[in-house]
Specification:
With about 425 residues, the protein is α/β, with parallel strands linked by helices. It contains 17 helices and 15 strands. It starts with 9 loop residues before the first helix and ends in a 16-residue tail after the last helix. Bound molecules: adenosine-5'-diphosphate and magnesium ion.
């Protein structure tokens, strides 16, 4: 299947070619024809499978065929986070570059409402919005939703995690019942299934890989650490052995994010923080610098990083094992996107046992353990090849839960706590 077999406009075909796409991804190949036939779609696909183009491309085509200038928006794309909404709008511009008559408004919190209102007053075809700001502007009478013909709910499971279901229900109740609804989610927990049943009529269900599976292009490793204060030294050890081009580092708690970031800076690594307590312009700036490869490491929370697509991400580090098993799938899905290979390392302390068991249950396999000196005590192993050599070797024989050992190298507590923080020792380094 090629893009030209999908009956898309010349403009889209050119834009897609210029984006460097050779052929539609599986979800695109299945969703685009269904959307063109005005069917509702339930798309279940892991991150990095190209869902954004799967809905924006046929939407642009449909809108371009309609009337030239809309007075009222005809499509609404709902996204859980500001960053994701911004990313969708960038994609919209990319795929729609030869349909410049189409207009869109990015309706997200944390930025000037006046600019958004001015933009809306000019008349737009597509709204790309987070639920809160959309409702806010609707209640102020600044948005008309009576002409919405296509509704896209992206990352529905994350909407639920973020507590947006009531807002979502409210928004859907404001839309015309005669419309096309496209519903995308990486996972399908019970409440999301219910919502899909309620909003979709006779949908084409597209499952690209089993829900909750982890990205196949990601090599995953667990690294045991005796105590959370050993995490920074262990991180550095892995970092030094890996060829880290750019990486997401996930922390469970917001307050740890700044501390981890400070630690990285003390090691002269270029990094920035991204979490929900930051001002929107700081969040945008951090993300843009990361995308532009001005910084190498983004230390972030789950909420901030969900679904973000940054080109060629080589690594994901879980500083903490996520509390919620599905977050593991999303985190490591930041790498290994669109066919590229990625590597994911998860630092594990003894108290993570239960969370880890849940992850193993969810993904249906045991993640390989990478044994490193300074981790949980083991007998001194004979000298072994490097992490990468071992990992490559492992790929050949693909034995589950194969244990990788590295030569013992002492992790010095003094290295961990070498005074680079002065009196301001991060909590994860402090002796409990
Ligand atoms: P998802 O929403 O499923 O997580 P995205 O829509 O963000 O995935 O796409 C992931 C990456 O794949 C993006 O960098 C995008 O540019 C790229 N991509 C999308 N479609 C194709 C394609 N047909 N061929 C190659 N790359 C693609
Ligand atoms: Mg997406």
């Amino acid at each position: 299947m090629e893009f030209k077999d999908l009956g898309l406009s010349e403009g889209i075909l050119r834009a897609v070619e210029e984006a460097g796409y050779k052929e539609p991804t599986p979800i695109q190949a299945q969703a685009i024809p269904a959307i063109q036939m005005c069917r509702d779609v339930l798309g279940l696909a892991q991150t990095g499978t190209g869902k954004t183009a799967a809905f924006t491309i046929p939407m642009i085509d449909a809108l371009a065929g309609g009337r030239a200038k809309a007075r009222m928006p005809r499509s609404l794309i709902l996204s859980p986070t500001r960053e994701l909404a911004a990313q969708i709008s960038e994609n919209f511009v990319k795929y729609g570059k030869y349909h410049s008559q189409l207009s869109m408004a990015l309706i997200v919190g944390g930025t000037s409402m006046d600019d958004q209102i001015r933009n809306l007053e000019r008349g737009v075809d597509v709204l790309i919005a987070t639920p809160g700001r959309l409702l806010d502007l609707f209640e102020r009478g600044k948005i008309l939703l009576a002409d919405i013909k296509i509704l896209v709910i992206d990352e529905a499971d994350r909407m639920m995690d973020m507590g947006f279901i009531p807002d979502l229900e409210r928004i859907v109740s404001l839309l015309p019942p005669m419309r096309q609804t496209l519903f995308f989610s990486a996972t399908m927990p019970g409440p999301i299934k219910k919502l899909a049943d309620k909003y979709l009529s006779n949908p084409k269900t597209i499952t690209v890989s089993p829900p909750s599976s982890t990205a196949v292009n990601v090599e995953q490793y667990l690294v045991n650490v005796n105590h959370s204060r050993g995490k920074s030294a262990m991180f550095m050890k892995i970092y030094e052995q890996e060829d880290v081009k750019n990486a997401f580092v996930f922390c469970n708690r917001k307050r740890d994010i700044d501390e981890v970031c400070r630690f990285m800076k003390s090691k002269r690594l270029s990094c920035a923080a991204l979490h929900g307590d930051m001002e929107q312009d700081e969040r945008t700036a951090a993300l843009n610098r990361f995308k532009a490869a001005e910084i190498q490491i983004l230390v972030c929370s789950d909420v901030a990083a969900r679904g973000l697509d940054v080109q060629g991400m080589s690594h994901v580090f879980n500083w903490d094992v996520p509390f919620n098993a599905e977050d593991y799938v999303h985190r490591i899905g930041r790498t290994g996107r669109a066919g590229a290979k990625g590597r994911a390392f998860t630092l594990v302390v003894p108290s993570d046992e239960k969370a880890l068991a849940n992850i193993h249950k969810l993904i249906g396999k045991k993640i390989d353990l990478l044994e490193m000196a300074g981790a949980t005590p083991t007998e001194a192993p004979p000298p072994q090849p490097s992490v990468q050599q071992k990992a490559r070797h492992h790929n050949r024989d693909q034995k589950q839960n194969h244990r990788h050992r590295l030569p013992p190298q002492d992790i010095e507590e003094s290295d961990v706590n070498n005074g680079s923080f002065g009196d301001d020792i991060p909590s994860f380094l402090q002796k409990k």
